[in-house]
């Protein structure tokens, strides 16, 4: 039986998905680098394992295929500083499987994140992305995200390796109340 493209599920990744997640990150970094964009030097595998263990890493699946992975946090004081008031969820490390580009996967991530944020009583969905990549900033703004500011992260050991000394654009989406 063929699986419809609309039968997407967002569920937690598991330890068994770890190698697939690393492969997705490495593949995305390679592609972005070839396209001339700034990319991470490496992915912090310890942080990924911790996110999986703590139920903060998710995947979009259709059938047996992982189409996208992403992490969430409930606070992000090292990047969002004084704005981190416990009223937002933070999307991190969103990686689309290149085999499934064009399936509007970020739309699915965002719909899930907004609903999840509402159930937790949060006011915002926040994220950061490459400060130098105007195209990706504009892409996220097309979903309703508001540009907040540019920020240069520190070298703090509490940040994942790939997020240290990084120029980022901070983006925020207000959650509409019922």
UniProtKB/TrEMBL annotation:
UniProt keywords (A-Z) are: Acyltransferase, Transferase
Output the InterPro entries linked to this UniProt entry.
Acyl_CoA_acyltransferase, GNAT_dom
Ranges annotated as spanning the membrane: none
Say if the entry is tagged with keyword Acyltransferase. Answer: yes
- Which Pfam families does the entry mention? Acetyltransf_1
Which Enzyme Commission numbers does its entry carry?
2.3.1.-
Q: What range(s) does the N-acetyltransferase domain occupy?
A: 8-162
Gene Ontology MF terms: acyltransferase activity
Q: Which Gene3D superfamilies match?
A: 3.40.630.30
Q: What is this protein called?
A: GNAT family N-acetyltransferase
Native species of this protein?
Paradesertivirga mongoliensis
């Amino acid at each position: 039986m063929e699986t419809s493209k609309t039968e997407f599920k967002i569920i937690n990744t598991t330890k068994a998905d770890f190698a697939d997640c690393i492969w997705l990150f490495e593949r995305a970094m390679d592609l972005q680098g070839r396209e001339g964009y700034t990319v991470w030097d490496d992915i912090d595998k310890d942080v990924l394992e911790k996110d999986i263990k703590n139920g903060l890493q998710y995947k979009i699946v259709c059938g047996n295929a992982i189409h996208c992975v992403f992490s969430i946090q409930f606070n992000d004081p090292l990047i969002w500083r004084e704005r981190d008031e416990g009223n937002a969820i933070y999307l991190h490390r969103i990686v689309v499987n290149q085999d499934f580009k064009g399936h509007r996967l970020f739309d699915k991530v965002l719909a899930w994140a907004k609903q999840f944020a509402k159930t937790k009583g949060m006011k915002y969905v926040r994220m950061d992305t490459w400060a130098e990549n105007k195209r990706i900033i504009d892409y996220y703004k097309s979903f309703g995200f508001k540009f907040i500011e540019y920020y240069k992260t520190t070298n703090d050991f509490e940040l994942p390796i790939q997020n240290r000394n990084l120029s980022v654009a901070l983006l925020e989406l207000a959650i509409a109340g019922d």
